[in-house]
């Protein structure tokens, strides 16, 4: 009969220590690899850091306007044929924030590809084609700015006009800003002579086509239109030269950042050395590293259990100690790395201005803080789980010891081994162990990913349907003091209103009226007699009819903004604020076809949401609209199409009256749209010969808005969606709307 051999004690001990060591190292590897994979090798990590530091705003507001950064702006933008100050003030035209963000995302993607080992060469490049495309826009803005100043000049005699015009044309052709031009009513002969002078800046072959338009403009005293016609053509050659020079500077249409950063390191050191050093670790394939470490760690912990002593409490304690030791070691390594790093990975390249140095420092501080917080949280997971298992094993040992003493006291046969671990405790121990390993893999993703998704500035609004959300709406949004409207109803520009929290714009589209059409419009308008007289005065002096489509308040001669450029600014704002849902309610003085063309020219039709054909159908949530990229809702007061997204508001919504002459006249009675609609517009302004700032100060108070909104909701049976006000920056309409949304979020949560 053979007797089974027993493994030597030293063999079992060596196996246990090997398994313990492998479990510890696997836990450390899981923590480090998981942290790296969710941070330095994850594009979302960099985008979040950039957003947290308001990088794009600081780039425009601090860095690019820093006098010490003139070298950068001169190299990239200073070759334009306009003064340096004009370039600086129009940076957002040549290099829009949306383009900057796209460029940054492009570089981030290239860096992450290198860090993951998908490419062997670190090559950071920026596609400058969007910038080159925008070069022409600066010329238009430059001329528009020039003309705006010209119209304020007193009228001199014709000889002075001719002399200054000749000088201005020369300066314009040289890419310089003219000191100023007078305006004057010109005879046919004088207009012809002025046309000859102005066309000197235009190539001879193109003068014939321009002459009729320039003569017509000067014949009506409209120097603005004359310059606008000549300017782009006069600039064409210089613009092409500027673009060519920029391409040469940028090595074609691509700017190679790698070479510049390599040469720009502090103390002559390779500026991208930290990135290359990090790649030595990240290129290993962090996903596979995590998987292998998890498998080895699980195997090692299983070995510790099955090769351990017969007492289940001691087995459990060893498994827990291995996990806790791995977590503690990882924690110590992270704290040491934080100490030695000093919170930065690289110094700013030589020659960078202080503003850029500060921005880089803040970005690195935020990035390092986020990285180490992720690592510490990840390391804490196995440490805490292991400590719980070890404590459970110790408690089980103590309980087994007391049971043994009880048995001996009762003179019962003492058990040769401790009691077996009950199944429920055994499965609990397995669950905690698995959670510790899985947590080391999954926890970094929770910390290292994108920042919390927000809709219209709030995370909790993402789950609220569009027809349940309250929004601040600006009445006659285009009629602003900033844009010099007569009798303005808002102060900031439309973009400024969006920045201040307005999310619904009530705008009026028009064609420029002829003098004969003004009388009828003025009679129907809400202008005071004094304002009407001002407008008539303008008509008789400097404001002849203009072509195209405009945003006007009743009469374009009382103030007008070109429609397409203004819609383009809305598109730019929405590009810079990708989590915002915006509504347009258009008092349409032009056709639906013209409106659709304008929205297309501005790029807004790409963002337009198409409402369901059934007005009673549910609306999507704000989160669904932002995720789909369809987050512009466009309504008309009269039209209903032809674009599918351009729907008549009163098919889908209802409103209150709006012709209140004093605050106490306000009611919630049905008006256009009748009753029972899903959307509800509350007109909350006083119109008594125009807007009233004093009344706005009273009715725009938070409690006044809340009181009326709740009253109207009770009477009409639907939540107020659009709170339309004059002077949206007066009072606290935003505070009232936030409180209304608080109530609706709580209602949905119940």
Automatic annotation (TrEMBL):
| Residues in coiled coil | none
Under the heading InterPro entries, the entry gives: PI-PLC_domain, PLC-like_Pdiesterase_TIM-brl
List the keywords (alphabetical). Answer: Membrane, Transmembrane, Transmembrane helix
Q: Which GO terms describe its biological process?
A: lipid metabolic process
User: Which residues span the membrane?
Assistant: 286-307, 319-340, 375-396, 425-447
Q: Which domain of life is it from?
A: Bacteria
| UniProt GO molecular function | phosphoric diester hydrolase activity
Q: What is this protein called?
A: Uncharacterized protein
């Amino acid at each position: 009969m053979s007797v089974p051999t027993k493994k030597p004690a030293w063999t079992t001990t060596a196996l246990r220590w090997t398994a313990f060591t492998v479990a510890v190292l696997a836990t450390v590897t899981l923590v480090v690899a998981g942290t790296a994979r969710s941070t330095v090798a994850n594009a979302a990590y960099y985008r979040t850091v950039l957003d947290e530091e308001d990088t794009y705003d600081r780039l425009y507001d601090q860095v690019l306007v820093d006098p010490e950064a003139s070298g950068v702006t001169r190299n990239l933008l200073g070759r334009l044929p306009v003064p340096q100050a004009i370039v600086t003030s129009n940076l957002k035209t040549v290099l829009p924030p949306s383009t900057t963000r796209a460029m940054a995302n492009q570089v981030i993607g290239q860096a992450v590809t290198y860090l993951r080992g998908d490419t062997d060469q670190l090559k950071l490049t920026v596609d400058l084609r969007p910038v080159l495309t925008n070069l022409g826009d600066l010329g238009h803005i430059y001329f528009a700015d020039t003309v705006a100043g010209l119209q304020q000049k007193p009228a001199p005699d014709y000889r002075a006009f001719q002399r200054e015009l000749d000088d201005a044309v020369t300066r314009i052709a040289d890419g310089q800003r003219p000191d100023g031009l007078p305006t004057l009513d010109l005879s046919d002969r004088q207009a012809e002579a002025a046309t000859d002078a102005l066309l000197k800046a235009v190539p001879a072959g193109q003068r014939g086509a321009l002459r009729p338009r320039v003569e017509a403009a000067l014949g009506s005293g409209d120097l603005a239109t004359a310059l606008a016609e000549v300017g782009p053509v006069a600039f064409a050659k210089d613009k092409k030269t500027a673009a060519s020079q920029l391409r040469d500077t940028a090595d074609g249409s691509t700017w190679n950042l790698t070479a510049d950063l390599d040469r720009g390191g502090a103390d002559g050191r390779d500026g991208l050395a930290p990135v290359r050093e990090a790649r030595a670790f990240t290129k290993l394939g962090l996903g596979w590293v995590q998987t292998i470490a998890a498998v080895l760690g699980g195997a090692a912990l299983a070995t510790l259990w099955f090769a351990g002593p017969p007492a289940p409490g001691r087995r459990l304690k060893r498994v827990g100690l291995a996990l806790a030791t791995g977590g503690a070691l990882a924690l110590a390594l992270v704290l040491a790395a934080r100490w030695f790093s000093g919170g930065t990975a690289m110094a700013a390249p030589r020659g960078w201005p202080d503003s850029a140095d500060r921005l880089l420092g803040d970005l690195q501080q935020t990035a390092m803080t986020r990285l180490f917080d992720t690592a510490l949280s990840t390391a804490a997971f196995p440490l805490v789980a292991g400590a719980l298992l070890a404590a459970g094993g110790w408690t089980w040992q103590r309980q087994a010891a007391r049971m043994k003493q009880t048995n001996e006291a009762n003179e019962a046969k003492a058990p040769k081994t401790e009691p077996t671990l009950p199944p429920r405790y055994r499965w609990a121990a397995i669950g905690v162990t698995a959670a510790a390993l899985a947590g080391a893999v999954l926890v970094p993703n929770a910390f290292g990913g994108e920042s919390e998704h927000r809709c219209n500035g709030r995370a909790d609004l993402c789950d609220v349907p569009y027809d349940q959300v309250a929004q601040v709406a600006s009445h006659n949004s285009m009629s602003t003091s900033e844009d010099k409207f007569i009798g303005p109803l808002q102060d900031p520009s439309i973009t400024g209103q969006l920045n201040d929290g307005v999310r619904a714009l009530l705008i009026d589209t028009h064609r420029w009226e002829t003098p004969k059409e003004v009388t009828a419009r003025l009679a129907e308008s809400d202008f005071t007699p004094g304002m009407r007289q001002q407008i008539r005065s303008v008509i008789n002096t400097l404001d002849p009819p203009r072509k195209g489509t405009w945003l006007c308040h009743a009469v374009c001669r009382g103030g007008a903004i070109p429609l397409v450029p203004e819609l383009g600014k809305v598109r730019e704002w929405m590009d810079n604020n990708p989590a915002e849902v915006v509504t347009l309610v258009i008092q349409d003085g032009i056709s639906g076809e013209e409106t659709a063309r304008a929205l297309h020219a501005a790029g807004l039709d790409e963002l337009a949401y198409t409402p369901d054909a059934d007005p009673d159908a549910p609306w999507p949530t704000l989160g669904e609209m932002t995720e789909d990229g369809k987050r512009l809702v466009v309504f008309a007061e009269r039209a209903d199409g032809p674009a599918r997204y351009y729907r008549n508001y009163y098919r889908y919504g209802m409103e209150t009256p709006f012709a209140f002459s004093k605050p106490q006249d306000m009611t919630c009675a049905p008006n256009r749209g009748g009753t029972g609609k899903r959307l509800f517009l509350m007109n909350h302004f006083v119109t008594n010969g125009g807007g009233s700032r004093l009344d706005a100060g009273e009715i725009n108070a938070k409690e006044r808005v809340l009181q009326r909104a709740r009253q109207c909701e009770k009477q009409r049976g639907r939540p107020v969606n659009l709170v339309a006000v004059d002077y949206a920056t007066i009072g606290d309409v935003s505070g009232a709307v936030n409180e209304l949304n608080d109530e609706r979020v709580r209602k949905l949560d119940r």
